[in-house]
Amino acid sequence: MNTYIEGILILAGINLMAVLGLSLLTGFTGLFSFGHAGFMAIGGYASAMLTVKFHWPLIPALLAGGLAAALISAVIGKVTLNLKGDYFCIATLGFGEAIRLILDNVQYFGGARGWPGIPNYTNIWNVIAINLLAIVILANLIRSRHGRNMIAIREEELASQIIGINVFKHKMVSLMLSASYAGIAGGLMAHYMTFLQPKMFSLVKSTELIIIVIFGGLGSISGSVLGALVLTALPEVLRSFSRWRLVCYGLAVIIIMISRPEGLLGGYELTPSSIKKLYNRIITKKRTRSQGLGGGDTL
Amino acid sequence: MLKVNNLQVYYGGIHALKGVSIEVNQGEIVTIIGSNGAGKSTLLNAISGFLKYKEGEVLYRNTKLPLNPSKIVKLGISHIPEGRLIFANLSVRDNLLMGSYLRKDKVKIHEDLENTYILFPRLKEREKQIAGTLSGGEQQMLAIGRGLMSSPDIILLDEPSLGLAPLLVKTVFDIITDIRKMGKTLLLVEQNAYKALSIADRAYVLEQGKITLEGSAKEIADNPKIREAYLGSKK
Asked: What is the model's pTM?
């Protein structure tokens, strides 16, 4: 495969991993986070530390990175998950920036200058495998009782509480899982770039993740997949516009959000059966239309 | 059955409930009347665990209630909040079944579902309709029906008549009396004091976070001060 395209796919896969996590939290549980780059940073630095300083192989290091992000998210969640809507959002924003600023000052990890020399373990195959596994786990979770509880909380939080759903617990599970996905994404990124710098995990990164989730459609896993692929590839496709390419990127996002405010898939899933249904609907529509025309001819 | 002792609730610096004590006995309809901002909803929210209180206690069958809303539902206390809060994207039937979230006895759940449909024939007609498309009155009935589906012993009902046409208000109050006949106990919070007092056994008047008057519903309704302040008659 062309290394350029391969590179874009790896980047899309890394973004997708973090976006899947954010999709669980934002799309299915209804909690907006502007701090997911912070969880990526924790996972990235933790797993890089394990492979560089302790010579761990990639997979255990990634899992440990995800776990580290989940544990920190549990601490954050404990104090912020009782906050409502916007306040939770601001709290995560503060958290993400705090992580970045702390890492700027940790000389053990190279501080603000960055940390070169991380082994290049990430390749297209392990990115695809990890993402597939992540999608399967997420899809099953959403269909389980836990996932349905999360969706109920998104739909009507107080009503969920009234019928006896433990709202806090399910928000916590959602946040921790979401953070661990982001942590693993951070680990993959560290071992792809072979270099880490706190600047890579700024608010811009968090915003990018949120844009992808909303762009793909809140509450749709396949939407997140599509969003991550399209929005990671888009700046590359627009490379010929050189300096105008980020303007075009912004414009493209705005145009899609105006014409489809619910996102590309808007809560629907692209599964083999749903594609078939859609196909059948289009076919029948065409048929009725042509029949209508046929009727006109006989007159 | 339910006893609230000296409950104090604060919203930040605002002292919303200043030592409220009430008691609800088995099989009664007890109503709490009071004006806007008196703390009626706050009291219900504190009982059902949505609000944390530092002082005072809520006893249910002589044991202290935990501060965890889902545990409180499990004990048999169902809170039907103000403003309906139904799951707008689910069907009427699924909304009702959501009410039985904590129960595992499938046979009993379906029995209760049928009983709910007997109580609200309107909901049976609209069983498969998406709940968000129901009218306001139907949504209120759905909220009450869902509250019943957790098979509660006591129901905390917050402003069931809010925003309903007079004819529907009558229907809702008729249903409340029917629910009592099913052997349930009700704690009813209402602004429509006249209607509430007409079906209740006992009543409390809550003013600025304090209980200022208590007694049988008839006594309260005949109290000249109450008549003037809440029932709008100076006779």
From this structure: 0.88
